[in-house]
Amino acid sequence: MARTAAYTVVFFFAAPGTTAGLVPWWITRWVRPDGPVGVVDVLGVAAVLLGLLAVVACFARFVAEGAGTPAPSAPTETLVVGGLYRHVRNPMYLAVASMIGGQALAFRSPGVGLWLVGFMTLVLAFVKGYEEPALARQFGTSYDAYRSAVPGWWPRRTPYAG
Question: What is the band of 162 on the pLDDT scale with cuts at 50, 70, 90?
Fold first, then answer.
């Protein structure tokens, strides 16, 4: 389990760290326009922090519940359906999108907003083209039941009990 956790930490910095950290930094250098802090800034920072908390929770769940990592090269041994995954199938992608969108607001950056659109386009293509078929092959009917019960992108109100 320690090796899985260590690999998960490395992947955390490589994947969400790049998409929600490095790329927005390249675009903004994390410099915001002069002026007073306002509601948009607070909303942006809140979106970043909530997204970060959700990503960390999802990564921890992959190690603890799934006995694997979020990385396609070291997938989980069991289907992860607990925590935030009881409400939506793709909480990690939504959390990273929240972090990117929050930075677009906080830094008033159309470039980061455009990166958010590009990121989500890539994610949707990856999920439909690779991830869902791979999960269906790996977990069969249990994934089919989960996929039928839990929406991919809009959280359900009641938690999945599957």
Answer: confident
